[in-house]
Amino acid sequence: SRERAMWHHAGPIALLLAGTHLFVHLALDTTLFSISSRFTAELVAACYLYWFARFVHFSAQTYQDKVKRENDEYTVWTLMKSITGVLLTINFVIFWMLPIALQGAVWKYALYRPFRPIYTWLDNHPGIRAWAVKNIYRREPYSDYFIQQIMVAVSAIVCFAIVFTYQITYGTMPFWLIIAYYYAWVGFGGRVMGGAYTFAHREAHNGFLYQDHIRNRFGNIFENWLGNLFGNVPYNFTTSHIGVHHKLQAGAGDTFYQWDFDRSSWGDFMIFLQRILSHMSGWSCLLFFRDFEKNMYYKMMLKGMIIYWFIFPSFLYMFTQSLSFLYYIWLQPLFCMTYFIAFMNFAYHGFVEFDEKGQHIWCVNSTMIIEGDDDYFGEDDHMNHHYATNVYHRDLPKYQASQIEDFKKYKGSVFRRLSIVELALFILMKDWSTLADHYVDYSGTMKKEEIMKMLEVRAKCKDMTNQEYIKWQQQKVEAFKVKKAAKALASKQ
Predict the structure, then answer these.
(1) Percent residues over pLDDT 70 in the chain
(2) pLDDT at 489
(3) With the C-alpha atoms ordered 279, 282, 287, 292, is the resulting torsion angle positive or negative?
(4) N or C: less crowded end of the chain, CB within 10 Å?
């Protein structure tokens, strides 16, 4: 049948896309891989576009037939979103999987034990903390961030300076330098990449983290400055994360919303990747603020998008005269962080269960990890990050102890001794047995098989289907417009 034929050809075509995707962009700089002619690059690009167009046309044709057979359950747009997710996945495998996986393993099994005491000594040094409190932060507890912030900032600035200088000096970048930059960008154990995300996140939640002389001159350093190197559009956390994600508690309407997907389905994850790419680019956030007339956030988000998509790239191109530099050093981090954040979010909000009133159970729809090795200042406790945002990370163990009765009653989504990446991977791999081993049963009454079944049901539970959610979004915008028109009419009368 046509559908079987499509999937039969999907593998080879995906490999072709991956290979030409890598080769074309390497060919943008003529010295890479000894390519001396632009004609070669253009020919490969033409082949790439030809096969991609054929794949999209053939897939769309197949899905149009499926739409007719299954009463419009699937749409061509859904297929296009899936293709976007597949391409992001191929891109992630080619460029980012090894730097993240290898350095994660090296950190966990080789470097953690010898280097952790050194970091702890620096982090707890009274002189360093006293200087940080006096010159950087508004309050003493915020000095917890200082050493990690310095390490991330120095690593990011030095590594970017090296590739930038090399490109200007030699007019090209060898592939080994690009790969080396990606390894440094990720850091051992993901410490650089994860730290950049964490501190942009923390700055957005605390507008008074820094002293006035820093805040007034630079604003949020990691969110709006260094964050550009990590695929973060300036002001994205301050606007969409605070004004949408937390305001809606990850619910319907959120640009991060995922409870119309099965969190244990790779197919659904492919579609979700497109949603997160739209969020990371700033586009879906901008449309949300426009549709619901959040004018202050709209202006901030628009400003951030202009900075990320026009001002900085124009500046870099003016000096480097290299599209491949923009692709590898500026755009690729956005693709990686899109995948990384989508992956984490499938774990952060991976489970759903409803109470007798049909409402989400709060200690189920956000996860908590205790005794984890990769916790960044309480980031592993996403449950209290949503429902007790004002609790500082130092106070989390005590606060968590006060919630045990709720965890017993509702069988909260609490896990022990794993990372958020592992949690997401186990959910997507449907490894309920391993997840059950890490699950914390505060009630002490559940057998492993019962835990496995509970986690599977919760991971597959949805608020609504994806098609229903798209219609809900359209209705929500229309209802807002009607309400606004009614208010305007009432004010005139």
Answers:
(1) 85
(2) 86
(3) positive
(4) C
